[in-house]
Predict the structure.
Amino acid sequence: MTVIVEERLTNEIHEINIEPTWKTKTYNFFEGPPADYSFSPDEAISSFIRAIRNEKDLSIAEGFIHPETNDFPWEKLEHEKWAKGHDRRFIYKGSYLGFDDVFYAKLRFGKTEEDNSEDLLEQKIYLVENNGKWKIIHVNSNFNKSVSTIHKDYIIFSNKIVQ
């Protein structure tokens, strides 16, 4: 590569040869980009959910758990509602279980027209940033009966409408 520089005072033209040295970094499922590359908590939650839904071996899902988390409640993720889809919102929690700057994903699995059940499962997955990656610290769930109603093409959850 050649850079051409023209001096304004003398009108001399100089040519400078440059040989760039490119550095590359490859990211993959196991080695994601650092936080300043927009690796969002939504991507972490989506990957975690895919791992627990599609994999019989939880070793991939275990990679999303914070290293300081003891006794992770895996049993709270064992329910039949995963196949039906869910509504997801992210909320800043603050401090939780000794961690600061905690966010949680609120997942709501509700009655659909094909579903004969009147049950609603609300699940929260708590996560924090740890060394440039989002790690899950806890999961809880709240299983309520008869809290959702169907109105035309909408599911109504506590006065919030989800299409």
